[in-house]
Design goal:
alpha/beta, 17 helices, globular, 434 residues, 43% helix, 14% strand, 6-stranded parallel beta sheet, binds nicotinamide-adenine-dinucleotide
Length: 434
């Protein structure tokens, strides 16, 4: 099949590459000229495990192309995916400017039947709005609009796309349904379902899934905070809870709050949608409030240890990305913490395996960056762990403690064993494990 993917970011590039991997011809479109040039030069501009291999194979096979010219891509394709940003607007609702702008452009370009597929996360009713824009200029027989939300996780995006737990397709058109079924069949050969539903339900499914996951995180963060007060260990509680099949083991890890480009904006946007329908989604309001507070928990611990005086203290930071295996720092809790530490007069030395370039672009020389994880420990008063990259899990503690001024670790991701830390005589403060 011939496919255009409009928007070549985390979702668009993975989507385009994975569709090419199953033999389709794919043209990815982006307005960012520099990005397109890098892609054309064979460079993958994001860090996503496994993506480069597929990207190389499919560009070499001539199945994956890049352009800034929307018309060229649309003319060559039957299916047009929109993988465009839907950032939060000033009032918290999803900003649909990019989607509507491209829909407007498409209405001027399309000359034969196309399936327009919305892969971006968009509020309920967006497929109808896109349809209305196209309908103004085009014959109804020339297009269908489908909602096909994406559930991939950054860090395992390729795996998630190639073997999705489920595919959700919202459409009221039998013709579009057949096209989408054919396109996705190679991805669900193990029997995972393709759920067909109406457009509004598909749009809602994505928000419901992300908001539920964010709720689980905020819930566990509150359990962890309470564990600290009552003298319980959240690790034990988590395992005791998670082995209940009604609950499940995943997504029960407390930490320093959720971040990334999805959960914060999607929870906010769903709450906003509820408001628009005169419904107060009380749980979501709390989820957001708890998350904002949780981003301050590690700083509170650091401040308490140094008796509110961080002036002249050097804090080594391991991990900047909002989670491991990505270079994405959008809404990363680490940045909130670093801001507060700098404001209190501390010096911050930071290391992240993939995300330092993006952080450097924001902080410049206000933060010192290390080439290797141990570099930042030299003469630091303590270490603060903000992202649980695998390489931080079993470090050379002897080497670490020779470099650090004192054996003090603040761990926002519960990476180390409490017993080991105690044995080594470390002042070790983690989340929900007093
Ligand atoms: P992104 O910011 O990484 O990428 C968006 C791309 O669109 C950018 O390269 C940008 O230059 C391009 N773009 C903007 N306007 C354009 C235009 N008019 N024409 C062509 N290209 C244009 O965003 P993302 O993380 O890939 O997210 C895209 C959507 O998918 C969002 O709605 C997001 O909520 C959703 N989503 C994201 C994830 C994730 O993990 N990142 C997962 C599921 C769903």
């Amino acid at each position: 099949m011939n496919i255009a993917v409009v928007g070549t970011g985390y979702v668009g590039l993975v989507t385009g590459t994975c569709f090419a991997e199953t033999g389709n011809n794919v043209i990815c479109v982006d307005i960012d000229q520099k990005k397109v040039e890098r892609l054309r030069g064979g460079e993958v501009p994001i860090f996503e495990p496994g993506l480069e291999l597929l990207f190389d194979r499919n560009t070499k096979e001539g199945r994956l192309h890049f352009t800034t010219n929307l018309k060229e891509a649309v003319d060559a394709s039957q299916i047009i995916f929109l993988a465009l940003p839907t950032p939060p607007g000033a009032d918290g609702s999803a900003d649909l400017r990019f989607i509507m702008g491209v829909a407007e452009d498409l209405s001027k370009i399309i000359t034969d039947y196309k399936v327009i597929v919305d892969k971006s996360t968009v509020p309920v009713g967006t497929a109808e709005k896109v349809y209305a824009i196209l309908d103004k200029k085009l014959d109804k027989r020339l297009f269908d609009v489908v909602s096909n939300p994406e559930f991939l996780r950054e860090g395992v995006a390729v795996e998630d796309f190639l073997k999705p737990d489920r595919v959700v397709i919202g459409t009221s058109s039998e013709k579009a349904k057949k096209v989408m079924q054919k396109l996705y069949e190679p991805f669900v050969r193990q029997g995972n379902p393709i759920y067909f539903m109406d457009e509004r339900s598909a749009e809602m499914t994505k928000y419901a899934a992300n908001s539920y996951l964010a709720t689980r995180i905020s819930f566990m963060n509150e359990i962890a905070n309470l564990c600290e007060k009552v003298g319980a260990n959240v690790d034990s509680v988590r395992m005791g809870m998670g082995s209940d099949s009604r609950i499940g083991k995943r997504f029960l890890f407390p930490g320093i709050g959720y971040g990334g480009s999805c959960f914060p904006k999607d929870v906010q946007a769903l709450a906003k949608t509820a408001n628009e329908y005169q419904y107060e989604f009380k749980i979501l309001e709390s989820v957001m409030e708890v998350n904002d507070l949780q981003k301050t928990v590690l700083t509170q611990k650091i401040k308490a240890f140094y008796k509110n005086d961080l002036a002249g203290k050097t804090i080594a930071v391991w991990g900047l990305a909002f989670k491991p295996n990505t270079d994405d720092i959008r809404e990363a809790p680490a940045l909130v913490i670093i801001d507060e530490l700098l404001e209190m007069g501390a010096k911050v030395k930071a290391f992240d395996p993939e995300a330092m370039g993006h952080v450097k672009a924001i902080y410049g020389d206000r933060v010192v960056f290390g080439k290797k994880m141990y570099d930042v420990l030299e003469d630091a008063d303590c270490l603060a762990i903000m992202t649980e990259w695998s390489e931080f899990r079993t470090p050379d503690f002897e080497k670490m403690f020779k470099m650090l001024k004192s054996k003090v670790i603040f761990d926002g991701r519960n990476v180390y064993d409490l017993g080991n830390m105690a044995e080594m005589g470390v002042h070790y403060d983690s989340i929900g494990r007093p």
